[in-house]
Fold this protein.
Amino acid sequence: MHPITPERAWALHGSAATRQLEARAIAAAGPHVLMQRAGLATARLALALAPHARQVWIACGPGNNGGDGLEAAMHLQHWGKRPRVRWLGDEQRLAPDAAASLARARAAGVLFTDAMPELQSQDLAIDALLGLGNARAATGDLAACIAALNASAAPVLAIDLPTGLAADTGQAHGPAVRARHTLSLLTLKPGLFTGMGRDLAGQVWFDALQDGDTVPSDATLAGPPPARARAHASHKGSYGDVAVLGGAPGMRGAAVLAASAALHAGAGRVYVAALDAGTVDLAADAPELMWRAPPELALARLAVACGCGGGPQVAAWLPRVLAEAAQLVLDADALNAVAADTGLQDALRWRAQPTVLTPHPLEAARLLGSSTTAVQADRLAAARALAARFGAVVLLKGSGTVVTEPGRAPAINPTGNARLATAGTGDVLAGFVAAHLAAGSTAWEAACHAAYAHGALADTWPAGRALTASALARAAA
Ligand SMILES: NC(=O)C1=CN([C@@H]2O[C@H](COP(=O)(O)OP(=O)(O)OC[C@H]3O[C@@H](n4cnc5c(N)ncnc54)[C@H](OP(=O)(O)O)[C@@H]3O)[C@@H](O)[C@H]2O)[C@@H](O)CC1
Ligand SMILES: Nc1ncnc2c1ncn2[C@@H]1O[C@H](COP(=O)(O)OP(=O)(O)O)[C@@H](O)[C@H]1O
Ligand SMILES: [K+]
């Protein structure tokens, strides 16, 4: 069993792939063996998380997820704990594995009770209501058990998935359990790491329940970028040139943030071409930045971050930028301009040089002609659709940032937290991506590595220090 941390990459499998692997594992191990392993793994983790727990409330649903909970109850009972099981199944409709576990739990003398637990007296609660079979919004007794788990003062350990969380999308379309820990079984599911997954699953643990067998993955939980040692004999030209095109009147700060981020992330030279023709120089704290008028940029040898605070004015520059930029990050207002203009959409599709689009969910919705709700309902699918439509690497921002490109399984970024929910952090990310592109990374690597580094800065940010976008930009290195 492993705790899932951002220190390495992990393969992710959706519900169809997991069902395929489950069928093969059951065929290899024999009936009921996997459920016994699942229950034992759950009980062991419960003991590790709450070694002194006495009262353990286990809410078991009508399917095999409930069967896992019944197995766990039996072990906890053997180990001297006092599990109480609320079981919501119907003996007439029970799958064979869950029926076998029900019989074992009863034989072990586990206490079954329909009474809701005394919430304050529980030391641990286990969510074994629904896993992969979560089919529709919970109502009635199921919804009441979800509410009880969420009201419990005791930590909640969810088996396989927090009840109500969709394995493939990270969304919940009804009541859902908010767990402190989730033990994912057989596979790690993408929904644990994006959308609502991070909030509902808490700390994720993984037990494969079997050795060796696998099926093709649907996505990856990204690992850390490789360390980039600088050759002693390198010079600023070795790390490439970034230009930031943006900063319309009143929004110069966004361009400065992206430029400062690119500079601190290691770009050799950073130019800023502000669309604000005024003369106010906000760059007093970064004299390294070189200010140019937009027509002066030699786009064909620059990694361009375009959009940052660009306002509607950026649209006029996009035909040239799309045609010429050696590498390109399109962010914010540049994405909105593309969404509003089919000519720019064609130019983006025809573009052959490396390109990364960095939409947040609303920008993604505009590009897809859908809504933020539709994008968030399936973030992986939305990112894939955008990548296919524009033939580019897409980095869909938000909790569990998704990176994808045509023909490649998406990566979910494991780092970052809600301290990044402050104005300008997206501009900083665009600057990071541009710096990676300028240094010679592929568009895919630049997007994955920049997202990881950006989130990791937030994850290690000192508790008492405000996380602002400008401080974030300067913290790169
Ligand atoms: N087999 C094995 O050896 C292993 C199995 N494993 C475990 O099995 C889990 C998958 O089991 P599963 O397929 O039985 O699905 P599960 O999540 O228990 O739910 C299905 C039941 O819930 C019901 N139901 C659904 N929604 C509902 C609602 N809103 N309100 C009310 N009822 C609702 C649904 O009813 P139905 O839709 O059929 O009417 C059905 O009865 C997996 O996540 C893992 O924990 C692993 O440990 C590996 C070993
Ligand atoms: N709750 C969160 N968890 C993880 N990352 C977050 C969260 N909220 C915001 N972020 C990150 O912060 C950045 C915000 O970007 P964006 O929405 O474009 O902001 P802005 O336009 O103000 O710069 C993105 O990289 C996003 O992924
Ligand atoms: K569950």
